[in-house]
Automatic annotation (TrEMBL), chains A, B:
This is 3-dehydroshikimate dehydratase. It comes from Amycolatopsis australiensis. The keyword DNA damage does not apply. Catalyzes the conversion of 3-dehydroshikimate to protocatechuate (3,4-dihydroxybenzoate), a common intermediate of quinate and shikimate degradation pathways. The keyword Metal-binding applies.
């Protein structure tokens, strides 16, 4: 196995003061940081104090950045730039860092002249060399004359100075569709620095895309494994360093963001074959889902045909079952969401837990009674517990002997984990890297109280949906976060809906307008449409199959249930119908609030 | 004066259920609505019930929208489309609306054949005509084959059907840079509908730009007055109808958004010369600023050289003065912000108030004692009171006889009104339309706890700055909203800072790193730099002049003061230095909070 590279993170990735950022980077286990100039400028700590702080935290300062608009300028501007460089080298000496990032110029002063650029960079490299420092030159994707890494490398080669090399930034290269393979031809010791960022593919100019929408590796659509592979193959031995400008991360808790950043690099290293992690064991399905709620959830489950089959040996927790669907109703304790836990059946629970721990997923402490199973449990980014179960988890429950006739539910189809605003991107990376689930593309849709984003993470019979607001919700929305739910699979949704309604299940009524629209859009057989309408069952279809589903009213403050039937190869989750459900929940729940003073 | 057009708003502009939206539109005084199909589909009310609701609210339903992917398709798709149209005409009949919007097709089924498009639209118009309805055909900017309004008009002309006309949408036309002048050549009675939206000019594809970033007229960069002028000149006599897709408005309180939407149309009508409003009187300066806070603010003002010159006759309110700077410290009552009120000196306060009222700015009720001045006061979108003053407002205060030596402050330079997340766009429109202030372009900058947007609205000596978070702040940020402040003008900031510090003023200490950076960037005379550094005075310059400024610590929960000196023609507000100030405030104020459970 090749040597494992060091890790670094640019302070600009994180929110807070410089002191907050350094503490967060160290706590997440980074080896070093790129120090963003503005973070230093606003800090009350002197460079020498920052140096000591970093040393105490075990962090190196791997890069000082960015130095802008340096090269290929008229003589008077060049003189001012060298003056500026001298001052910055003084600061770097105090900081104890030896590499400065120079971004290709965007200045209107800049001249399209590679020889001039090389000559002026050589002058800067001379100054650097006198201080034992070096200059890493990077092509910005929107540089005025130099916007590709091969061009930057040509200028560096022409300058031929030992203290001048290139900095490669995955975003600047991949966003423009440049081929990263020729990186292999750059001598590894001339690649002075490597900055990594992923991104979704967005139809906008590269500058706002870069400034607002970068993501950590594995969260976006770039192939960072291939890219970084080329850089390592060239012989680069510096740190893998994250430089991610993202509007959401900039204002999120840096301690959580740094942990997710580290997870992204660990997963990247694993994919590069430079880090050996316990492989993700196969997950065979949903062992159970836990809802943390008031006793109302049990009554709703009973009306859906569930039986209360077990009582926890030591806790106020009930097990409800129907077919292979198992729901644990937890009436005690605090929880982050209405769904307190998802329990996944693993072929090797202990290995699943070891992998999770190796990928920065906190393993949760758990009080365990003498006869109770040793369930491994890790915390998802939003605080949801993820249990990893073998076959013995049921031993925690004393059988009640209760059985129920059932109403056609055969198992858990999926668990819908609506996410807090700050955690949408990292949730998908978490479930993918830690448990080997495959994320689907992000769907955006308009709901009554604002736009939502939704995606699934799935493998085989394990399916989770993740949903979050596009704009963090304020006081007008009925809830900061939409409720979560557990969706049960059945083989005949129309029959199940009729049976459950007859048994008094609090099923949502779906407006006639919905069925009028369905009739206009799709040429469904009239009897089919009438049955859907009569039973308030929603409908979706795609090229692979059909989807019938219906919902209960809220069964607690922030949780409800769904029953779904998949026909053919339909793989979706009926997202197009979600706004109908939201409006129906709203109609049952909320009076319109008074106008509030804005915060 | 030409006839005043009716007003309408698309329900998709507003947040909530259809019921919420209709109530908000009616309360804001709209004459009608465009009914967005999805709002109807999710509503528990039948079309007939919606019709009655609208009638009760005094709203007409002016348009049913949108019908997508209709024209220029193969015969089997055309048959399905006509079937869909019949169903929608049924719904429209129940709603009592006679016009449907057909957007130019984006379907891969669509064929680039104007004759086929005309023929199929004619068939739809035939169906409509039989029901006494009509079809308004609109070119989407991203339509597959039809993406310009002149092309849509050619197809409509070719179809030559009395029940087929065009719908014009300002966004689709102006976003593509199409010349709107030829609209004048379209017969007015063939323009069946007019949709208005403004937008900032953004470097992205037109589809996401349209779906996420539209604004109400006057909030963006399009010339809606010229555009609408062409449409009225053509003879269009339908409503001016807003169709604004905006991520923020979609989740904001619809009652506030609808009011701002109406203000945008009133201002537009005034600019078109179809509505006569009382003209905005000249504003001659800041009469005073009111801070609502604890007694600490008075002590800070005293340390800045202010004297407490008056006590309010009936309220726990003090007047503090220095030069022409007047601050009212209000220790009682609730307020929306730390700055409770800005008081602007008007050449005709009564007319200012009449204009504000005509532009949907709520005139605030005010308890007035027998000897007190009758100040007009209106509420800004964020709840800040705006007083409009003549010369007699001082009569409310009993003079104390106190005087102070002063420390060089000569007046109020500006008041910084940080805005709640939802109110940034509308605040600029409010101050522009109601008071005739001119907005400056929006600046975006990175601050320790996330990106911020900032702009000024100013006229002569009246200057307000508006600032809001780009992403609504969550639990990590020290405050949902940055504090507000009053900035005082002086003629020698270095002398003032020294005098005030000697008098015990709690001035912010600015880090040495800031001055090291200033030295590197700008070739300031060493003595000048040393003086700035010694006195913690910040510096900015532009092509027109220089700006020296310094800040106090927080003088209350959410308010502080600034002292500024303008040299030459500098017109900015030192925004580049704001992050330095924020980090300094943070250093004085906050311990790092524990990691919180996300909401």
């Amino acid at each position: 196995m090749p040597p494992e590279p060091r890790t670094a993170i640019a302070t600009v990735c994180l929110s807070g003061t410089l002191e907050d950022k350094l503490a967060a980077a160290a706590a997440a286990g980074f080896d070093g940081v790129e120090l963003f100039e503005n973070d230093l400028v606003v800090s009350p700590s002197s460079p020498a104090e920052i140096r000591r702080r970093c040393a105490d935290l075990g962090l190196s300062i791997d890069l000082y950045q960015p130095f802008r608009d340096f090269e290929a300028v008229p003589p008077d501007v060049h003189a001012a730039n060298l003056r500026r460089a001298r001052h910055k080298f003084d600061v770097m000496a105090e900081l104890g860092t030896d590499t400065v990032l120079v971004c290709s110029s965007v200045s209107p002063d800049a001249i399209d002249d590679d020889e001039l650029a090389a000559e002026q960079l050589r002058a800067m490299a001379d100054l650097a060399q006198q201080r034992g420092m070096r200059v890493a030159y990077e092509a910005l994707a929107w540089g005025r004359h130099v916007s590709g890494y091969e061009h930057a490398w040509r200028i560096v080669r022409r300058a031929a100075h030992p203290a001048l090399g290139v900095c490669l930034d995955s975003f600047h290269i991949l966003s423009k569709g440049h081929d990263p393979a020729p990186i292999r031809a750059i001598p590894g010791d001339k690649i002075f620095f490597l900055q990594l960022a992923d991104a979704p593919k967005l139809p906008m100019d590269v500058l706002p895309w870069s400034r607002h929408h970068r993501l950590f590796p594995g969260q976006g659509e770039f192939d960072l494994t291939a890219f970084t592979g080329h850089v390592l193959a060239a012989g680069y031995r510096g740190p893998l360093s994250l430089e991610v400008f993202n509007d959401v991360f900039r204002q999120a808790d840096p301690r959580l963001a740094a942990r997710d950043a580290m997870r992204s690099l660990l997963a990247l290293k694993e994919s590069l074959g430079v880090l050996d992690l316990p492989a993700a064991p196969a997950l065979t399905g949903h062992a159970f889902a836990e809802v943390v709620t008031d006793p109302g959830a049990g009554r709703v489950l009973a009306s859906l045909g569930f039986a209360r089959t077990g009582l926890h040996r030591t806790k106020p927790v009930e097990l409800w079952e129907q077919g292979e669907a198992r729901v644990v109703v937890n009436e005690g304790g605090a929880a982050h969401g209405a769904v307190g836990a998802v329990a996944l059946a693993s072929t090797d629970p202990a290995r699943s837990a070891r992998r999770a721990e190796a990928l920065c997923a906190p393993v949760l402490p758990r009080a365990r009674g003498p006869r109770e199973a040793d369930l491994a449990s890790v915390a998802a980014p939003d605080g949801t517990q993820v249990f990893l179960c073998g076959d013995d988890w049921r031993d925690d429950f004393v059988p009640t002997g209760e059985t129920a006739g059932g109403a056609g539910i055969v198992g858990i189809d999926h668990v819908a984990l609506t996410q807090p605003f700050d955690h949408f991107e990292e949730a998908a990376l978490f479930y993918r890297s830690v448990f080997g689930l495959t994320p689907s593309p992000v769907t955006e849709f308009a709901a009554p109280f604002g736009l939502l984003r939704s995606r699934a993470v799935a493998a085989g019979e394990v399916r989770l949906t993740l949903e979050a607001a596009v704009v963090r919700r304020g006081e007008w929305a009925p809830a900061v976060r939409e409720p979560q739910h557990v969706a049960f699979a059945c083989t005949d949704a129309l029959a199940a809906a009729a049976a459950m309604r007859a048994a008094g299940a609090p099923l949502l009524d779906i407006p006639g307008n919905y069925y009028d629209d369905l009739e206009a859009r799709l040429d469904l057989p009239p009897s089919r449409l009438a049955a859907l309408r009569e039973r308030s069952v929603l409908y979706d279809r795609d090229a692979e199959g059909e989807f019938l589903h219906f919902y209960t009213a809220l069964a607690g403050a922030r949780v409800f249930f769904e029953v779904v039937q998949r026909i053919g190869g339909y793989r979706g989750f009926g997202v197009a119908n979600a706004p109908v459900r939201m409006a129906a929940h709203r109609a049952r729940r909320h009076a319109v609030p008074p106008v509030k003073t804005p915060a």
